[in-house]
Fold Phosphotransferase.
Amino acid sequence: MATAPRPRTTTRDPEELAHRLTAWLAARLPGAKAVNVTVPASNGMSSETLLFDIEHPEPPLRACALRLTADPAAYTVFPVYDMPRQYRTMRLVAEHTDLPVPRVLWLEEDPGPLGAPFFVMERIEGRVPPDVMPYTYEGNWLHAASDEERDCLEVASTGLLARLHDQVPVREADFLALPGDGSPLRRHVTAQRDYYEWVVDGLSRSPLIESAFDRLDHLWPSDEGEAVLNWGDARIGNVIYDGFDPVAVLDWEMAAQAPREVDLGWTVYLHRFFQDLTVSFGQSGLPDFLRRDRVERRYAELTGHIPRDMDFYTLYAALRHAIVMLRVAYRQAHFGEVAVPADPDTLILHHGSLRAMVQGSYWEGPGVGR
């Protein structure tokens, strides 16, 4: 799916949204208009984003971005979208860290104006490592960079996680504690099991995903360590860069309290996902970029915390990503874009690497940064 046309993600009309946005904005900033309203080409697979400018003599910000709850008519990726939670998370991170989090301006919880809750934040200019075509592909700006430039980006991006985990007092993030019993990690995994059950409700179950859950139980850490504020979708595709320096950290909808390694495993595996995909299409990709051993070492140097049980956490990342991919594939089937095969595991783009992780062989190959 990272090389095919993007699946349908919404049934909303951008022109109608622009008209309704102008009406909403004028009520909060009399005389203001929303102009140059666009949907970015890299609009996510989950929540929707609108970019617009404020036309007004004295706007709080002129260049804005709007995050809108996913269209419920478009077979949403997640069962719940909590925009106040995201808004509050971004304010918390901005208050307690020096991370470049875009300034949030307004939160609208009433679904009336645009058909769903949303919030507005400042728009930061820069460039993002793309998912389509993946930044690991030849011709992409990050692939074309020098080793030194990519190393600069890797160090700075790992530093984002280190500062987030160290600087936000976890007691201030109580609203991000997941419900249920047990440790933060137990509750995190339970939430993923519940998400999987929601995805496959009335549809074919995935033997591979279920075997991955079983393997997690076998690899469960003996010492889970402290819980910190996790970004949740911790990957360079959710960062805007000026050159090779981060200038905006985006997409906080998966934030939660969890061990540090949940974020680290996601960072490491999501790069591996694109790297493996690139290799499967006959390109070399970026085999020395965001290697697991280097991310672990640099994180330890920055925080004093040595990452542990990373076989568990990278498997958990691949498992979580598989559930999302399965939901996205079922959405494509819902819109008639694909047919559901006899083996639902083949709908998971990285089923081969996930199976290798379940079998314990994935990190044994050459060049994987063990």
Summary: The two ends are 27 Å apart (CA to CA).
